[in-house]
Amino acid sequence: MKHEGEWLLGALGAAGAYLLAIMPERKHRAERMKGIFYAHRGLHDLEAGVPENSMAAFAAAVEKGYGIELDVQLTRDQIPVVFHDFTLKRVCSAEGRVKDYTFEELQQFSIEGTNQRIPEFADVLQLVNGAVPLLIELKCPDLGCEICRLTDQELQGYRGSYTIESFSPMALLWYRRHRPEICRGQLSMNFQRQEGTYDPQQLIARHLLTNFLAKPDFIAYDIRDKEALSKNICRKWFHCPSVAWTVRSADELRKIKPYYDAFIFEGFRPQVRK
DSSP assignment of 143-185, as one string? Predict the structure, then answer.
C-alpha cells in the first residue's frame, strides 16, 4: 500500500506539473478572434496572377472582408518584409535566404513569376489600414528577438486590430515582457510527422510545454492534429481559443470546426460572419 500511495502521489504531481506547464494566459484577450476567417498569406490565386503574401493578395482579402494571416521576417538591412519561406527558392526561383539580401536587392525578384514583388510590412499596414483583422506570424530563424522589436515598432502607430503568433516561444516571451497588452498566440503541430525524426525540443513544442513561459492568449494548431491533447486541454479547461491552420476546403472546414474557434484558410471562399 505504501508503494501504491507513493505512485499515486507521483502521478498526481506529474499531472499537476504538466497542467502548470501548458497553462496559457487567462485574460481572454483572444475572444475577439472567435469566428474570424483569415486568408492564408492573403487571398491568393496564382491562376489569376495573385500570388501568396503579395499586395494584390492582401487587397483581395480586404475587398472580400476576410482577415489576413501573413508572415514577417527581416532583410539584411533589418527591414521587416512579408514573406513565408526563409529561402527564396520556392517562391522566387532564386538562391539564398531573405536575410542575405537588402530590401532593395529583393525587389529584383518576382513572386511566383508574377509582376508582384516582396512587400515591406509597413506598406501592407498602410494598404489594410484597419479594414480587416491581421494575424501576424513572426518568423524567427534563431533565438534572437530583433524581429519582435522592429515589427512592434512598425505597429506602434497602427490603429487596426491585430494579433501576433509565432512558433518561437521566445518571440511570445518578448511580447509578454515588453508589450503584455498585445494578444499573442503559440503556433504548433506534430513536428515528428514533418521532420521524420525525434527531437526533444520538438516534443516540448508539440505538447505546448513552454506555455508557462510564453503565456499565449491563443493556440494556433495544425488541423491534422485537431485532437492534440494539450491543445484541447487549453481550449476546454482553460478556455484558450484555438486557431486552425490551414483549412483548404468547405468539407475540411465542416470536419474540423468543432475543434477550433477561428480559421486560417486558402483555396476556397468560406462564408464571412456578418
Answer: S--HHHHHHHHHHTT--S-EEEEES-HHHHHHHHHH-TTS-EE
Taking residues 89-116, what's their average pLDDT?
97
Domain membership of residue 271 (yes or no) is no
pTM for this prediction: 0.94
Q: Which pLDDT value is given to residue 128?
A: 98
pLDDT of residue 14: 87
Nearest CA to 137 out of 167, 169, 177 is that of 167
- Helix or strand run (H / E) with residue 108: none
Does residue 102 fall inside a structural domain?
yes
What range does the domain containing 157 cover? 2-265
Greatest distance between any 2 Cα atoms in the chain: 74
In a domain, 33, yes or no: yes
| 111 domain residue, yes or no | yes
From CA 252, how far away is CA 272, in angstroms rounded?
Answer: 16
